[in-house]
Amino acid sequence: MTEDTARLRQPSMADVARAAGVSAQTVSRALRGSPNVNPETRRRVLVAVEQVGYRFNSAARALSSGRSHTIGLVLLASGGYYSRSAVTAGVEAAAGAAGYAVSIATIAALDTGLMEQSLSKLADQGVDGFVIAVPLISVTRKMEEITRDIPTVTLDGSRTAGARVLGIDQQEAGRVATQHLLDLGHRQVWHLSGPDEWIEARRRRQGWQECLAAAGIEAPPILEGDWSPDSGYRQGQIIAMIPEVTAVFVASDEMAFGVIRALHERGRSVPDDVSIVSVDDIALAAYSAPPLTTVRQDFYRYGAAAVALLLGDEAEVDTSVVTASLTVRASTAPPRSA
């Protein structure tokens, strides 16, 4: 880097960290007024800020006012357009009503490195809290460190030690869906799972397996999709060729739409030949053909409730939002033999 280039570049938090002899994360905590930074370290950071001429923008406002009035929202780019949009809308509506802005970081894949980068970016902006809607199973040390000092709510996804978890019991969702089909008289229930690296997919699958085991039924082979209608359609083509299948628990509404389409094209009627139950109850579920029986997840209310938890307004959280309730529609019926 030339001298002219150095003069043109604005000093960064990394420059402050080097000058103070601490990590960039410690600088971020010091500028946020975190109680876990000792006074001497905070003094060194503030001296380094003056030395390098760092303009700390939102972090400076957080230091002087005690708050940045910004909430950081971390999302996954894939995994359900409708759920992602509804969570975002819920967070933004509740945050805006409370006088907060929302800073959004979207990661492209389930990767701990990408997650660390997004959390670090938001922490450097001085956010007052995190809402994490990313279903990572593994949590790194750095993720724990970043969320230790910043209030965090996870929407049935990545869990760190200090985070509050909000969402329905996904195992219970799997049990409720499967039990509904058994109660209708189906002797076996197949399962189209979401990707194995997702917490929700694993837990819904566990609920399905537990329910079948309690009924003394050996679980059939698991089919796996990627949450998309297209993957549901592809797996539905396979399901349609297995004549003994009369009931399927599909891990998401969007995949269920694809399954229903595939069965219809193969001449198998829903629910006369095959009953379908899924999870999510997105807006389109009531308008599919036939209307879909599904376990409800209110993503908009999840987002709003997460903001309430971050701001300490627990009285504003409707506990019914975390209940695994089944909405019965026309996609399920007793098997023909019954």
Overview of the molecule:
This protein is α/β, with parallel strands linked by helices and 338 residues long. The protein contains 13 helices and eleven strands. The chain has a six-stranded mixed β-sheet with strand order 7-6-8-9-10-11, sandwiched between helices. It has a five-stranded parallel β-sheet with strand order 2-1-3-4-5, sandwiched between helices. α8 (141-148) links the parallel β3 and β4. α2 (13-20) packs across α4 (39-52) and α6 packs parallel to α13 (299-310). The chain is elongated and about 80 Å long. The N and C termini lie far apart (78 Å). The model is unreliable at 1-8 and 59-64 (pLDDT under 50).
Write the layout of secondary structure elements.
Blueprint: H1 3-8, H2 13-20, H3 24-32, H4 39-52, H5 57-65, E1 70-76, H6 81-97, E2 101-107, H7 112-124, E3 129-133, H8 141-148, E4 152-155, E5 164-166, H9 170-183, E6 190-193, H10 199-214, E7 223-224, H11 229-240, E8 247-250, H12 253-265, E9 275-280, E10 293-296, H13 299-310, E11 326-327
Parallel strand pairs: 1-2, 1-3, 3-4, 4-5, 6-7, 6-8, 8-9, 9-10
Antiparallel strand pairs: 10-11
Q: Calculate Rg over CA atoms.
A: 24 Å
How large is the count of helical segments?
Answer: 13
What class would the helix/strand composition place it in? Answer: alpha/beta
Strand fraction band? Answer: 5-15%
Low-confidence stretches: 1-8, 59-64
Average pLDDT figure = 88
The N- and C-terminal alpha carbons lie at a distance of 78 Å
* Adjacency order of strands in the biggest sheet: 7-6-8-9-10-11
